[in-house]
Specification:
5 helices; single chain; about 20% helix; alpha+beta
Length: about 210
């Protein structure tokens, strides 16, 4: 058994960080906007091929009806933060292309692992021990494997609170745990912290040609 990293197949690395379709994926939120959920969702849409970076960067001028609806609906949550129900509502314009499900706790972590293995992504809703919630975008896992078996131990995440890491698809790592410990360790560019995994949103693309 050896350490193995599994990252979404649409992601590559460039000098600036994670890239898809030769475009930078990472979106950096401000310290004030409280829009980590919106940032994670927009990054996920780009990775899954449902929106381009250029369209996302100019979202207030987009001609895409789906993105325009998402943008108009998301603005009321800026500076206030978003819960899982808010994020799920924002994905409604993409219902024909995307299946979104909400899960909780350790079971949610396992569903996230399955979704990542099937070519999807997962948004992880965490809460810090000192208070305050945050969203992370899981783009892969780190685990132990031997070519036939694989056990995921940690999520590889893009954290919109931090800048991307050069030549690396992720900028944070969250322990998956074993279902017994209440808190999990999150490794970020400025150090480690203990967090609680509260909710998980799995985002799985639907097969082409299906509603």
């Amino acid at each position: 058994m050896h350490t193995t990293f599994r990252v979404h197949p649409a992601l590559a690395v460039c000098s600036q960080g994670p890239c898809g379709q030769r475009q930078l994926v990472h979106l950096r939120q401000s310290d004030l906007d409280g829009a980590c959920g919106q940032h994670c969702l927009l990054m996920a849409l780009q990775i899954l091929g449902l929106a381009s970076r250029e369209t996302i960067i100019n979202i207030d001028q987009t001609r895409s009806r789906a993105l325009k609806t998402l943008w108009q609906s998301s603005r009321e949550h800026y500076f206030r933060g978003t819960h899982a129900a808010h994020i799920t509502a924002l994905t409604v314009p993409f219902a024909r292309q995307l299946t979104v499900e909400e899960h909780f706790g350790y079971e949610g972590a396992q569903r996230a692992c399955s979704t990542l293995a099937d070519g999807g992504l997962a948004m992880l809703g965490i809460r810090y021990r000192y208070g305050g919630g945050h969203w992370l975008l899981a783009i892969g896992t780190e685990g132990l494997g031997d070519g036939q078996r694989y056990r995921a131990n940690r999520f590889l995440v893009i954290d919109p609170s931090y800048d991307p890491l050069p030549l690396t698809p992720w900028n944070g790592v969250l322990n998956i745990g074993n279902g017994r410990a209440r808190s999990q360790r999150l490794a970020s560019p400025d150090g480690d912290s203990l967090v609680y995994l509260e909710s998980v949103l799995t985002l799985l693309p639907k097969q082409r040609g299906r509603a």
